[in-house]
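Design request, tokens follow.
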């Protein structure tokens, strides 16, 4: 694998990766989807294919911190609805990585993210146009009405994008927003979702040669920067109202999609 050890990086390159690791912690506990910026930084500093394997343990560390913070708010019926489709998407993504080059991967993921953001914005505007008698609609009821077809389509896309570029966050963010989840339910459900999915990706990534001893050594140096990002995210999320939270998630998705397209 064309990867790098810690000693092959310049000071500026390591600083960029450390900032990206910090953003992973922040995104996992505050604004899901923001870690697409981390994805872009890793791909810019490291060999593009190798960067996905190096980033994966960093993401898992962020997932663990998010689960510890929001474990009481997870909506398990939604998770069970998604997992079979996500598994299929991971398998398809693994096969895609066998032959696809970096340019095809980036373009495909970028287009998917922008389409998902566009669909979500359109649906949110439609919902805002409706007059509702009960403003405090529970996330569980909204999720139950989301529909099996939509869950399967988002699940396959989420599994595919998380396997080929660790970019499943924005896709699943769009699904959870469209299902009506509030902040804490959103963060708790996505925390368990990505912890389980990312851990399940480890043997696939290792089998593709994307994870080895050198990549894990670099991960060990970067993990310390995930923790402060997670703590700042936990502090910030209580100070972000629901409307701003949704806009930040969508904006992070759009930025991530554009970065992948222009990279």
């Amino acid at each position: 694998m064309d990867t790098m050890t810690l000693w092959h990086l310049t000071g500026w390159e390591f600083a960029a990766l450390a900032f990206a690791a910090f953003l992973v912690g922040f995104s996992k506990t505050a604004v899901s989807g923001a870690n697409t910026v981390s994805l872009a930084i890793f791909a810019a500093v490291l060999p593009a294919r190798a960067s996905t394997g190096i980033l994966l343990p960093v993401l898992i560390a962020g997932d663990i911190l998010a689960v510890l913070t929001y474990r009481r708010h997870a909506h398990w019926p939604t998770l069970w609805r998604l997992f079979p489709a996500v598994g299929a998407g991971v398998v398809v993504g693994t096969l895609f990585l066998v032959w696809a080059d970096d340019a095809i991967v980036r373009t495909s993921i970028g287009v998917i993210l922008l389409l998902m953001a566009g669909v979500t914005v359109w649906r949110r505007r439609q919902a805002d146009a409706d007059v509702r008698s009960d403003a405090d609609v529970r996330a569980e009821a909204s999720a139950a009405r989301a529909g099996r077809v939509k869950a399967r389509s988002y699940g396959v896309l989420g599994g595919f994008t998380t396997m080929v570029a660790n970019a499943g966050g924005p896709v699943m963010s769009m699904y959870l927003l469209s299902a009506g989840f509030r902040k804490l339910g959103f963060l708790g459900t996505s925390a368990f979702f990505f912890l389980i999915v990312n851990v399940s990706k480890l043997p696939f990534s290792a089998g593709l040669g994307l994870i080895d001893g050198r990549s894990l050594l670099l991960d060990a140096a970067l993990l310390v920067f995930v923790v402060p990002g997670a703590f700042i995210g936990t502090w910030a999320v209580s100070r972000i109202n629901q409307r701003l939270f949704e806009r930040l998630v969508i904006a992070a998705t759009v930025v991530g999609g554009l970065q992948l397209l222009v990279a």
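Comment from the thread starter after seeing the answer: thanks! The chain has a mean pLDDT of 79.
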